[in-house]
Amino acid sequence: MKVDPQQFLDLVEGAHKLVFVDIEAMGLKADYGSAICVSFKPFDKKPYTFSVSRPGDDKKLVKEAKEELEKYLVWCTYFGKGFDIKFLNTRLLRWGLLPIESRHHLDLFFTLKANVLTARKSQSHLLAWLETPEQKMSVSASDWADLPFNPKLLATMVRRCESDVSGLEALYRRCRHVIKDITR
């Protein structure tokens, strides 16, 4: 029996089993980089974050993120299938830990790419174009470069990550009606 995605979303929203997820990482490849923080925002709730105590030491963080992700029935990300989940699973592999158990995964990047025709596909562009109150927080290149040497910048990265999941929920709310499929 096929379940209507809109009815399924009604159920997981009501059961508080839908979570918006984003990571911040040093580097784009997990063999040369490491996770800095992972933010979660359960539907209609406040965001919360797990973070490293110092960049490069992410074993505890990725283990906590895995355990947290597995509590939810549906993950909502923006290019999370292409980056966030793969990055976390690669770091888990690095530390000899099991990968994240699969869940229903709503990736708004792919959903919107398939259903709307905009000049740019970034979350930042879509939030600005849709004029949502939540906008993507930018971080300067120098702050990214200084992060390993300045632990005070971790707080900036946590704020950015929480901003991203709040923006992701805003994007979801504006575009929910175009969701036709939720895959594992």
Number of domains: 1
Shape: globular
* Rg measurement, Å: 16 Å
Strand content: 15-25%
CATH topology: Nucleotidyltransferase, domain 5
Class per helix and strand makeup? alpha/beta
Proper CATH architecture:
2-Layer Sandwich
Order of helices and strands: HEEEHEHEHHHH
Global mean pLDDT: 95
Amino- and carboxy-terminal Cα gap: 16 Å
Biggest sheet overview: 5 strands, mixed
Widest sheet, order of strands: 3-2-1-4-5
Characteristics:
184 residues, alpha/beta, Nucleotidyltransferase, domain 5, five-stranded mixed β-sheet, 7 helices
Report on this model:
There is one protein chain. With 184 residues, this protein is of the alpha/beta class. It has a single domain, classed as Ribonuclease H-like superfamily/Ribonuclease H (Nucleotidyltransferase, domain 5). 43% of the residues lie in helices and 16% in strands. The chain contains 7 helices and 5 strands, in the order H-E-E-E-H-E-H-E-H-H-H-H. The chain has helices at residues 5-14, 59-69, 80-94, 108-115, 123-129, 141-146, 153-175, and strands at residues 18-26, 34-42, 48-51, 74-77, 104-107. Strands 3-2-1-4-5 form a 5-stranded mixed β-sheet, sandwiched between helices. Helix 2 packs across helix 3. The chain is globular and about 50 Å long. The mean pLDDT is 95.
